[in-house]
Specification:
- With 73 residues, the chain is mostly helical.
- The protein has three helices and no strands.
């Protein structure tokens, strides 16, 4: 919730205006609700947000079992 509400404001303060960068940041940090909120800005930002969210989930699903096996976390 916090990422979806404050994310666009924070990106504005950082002067990030590129829709692809804004979408990627929101997708990785604020997940589904962030993707929905950034999609209201532009469809390009929404698409990159969804892609970033999916890829971060895939990377986590593939690397976490390896780390657990290696380090016994």
């Amino acid at each position: 919730m916090i990422g979806a509400v404050l994310g666009p404001w924070f990106l504005d303060r950082l002067r990030i205006e590129d829709p692809t960068l804004r979408g990627t940041a929101m997708g990785v940090s604020a997940h589904g609700l962030g993707t929905a909120s950034i999609y209201q800005e532009s469809s390009e930002a929404g698409a990159s947000s969804g892609l970033a969210m999916g890829l971060s989930g895939l990377i986590t699903a593939l690397t976490l079992p390896v780390l657990v096996k290696m380090f016994g976390l």
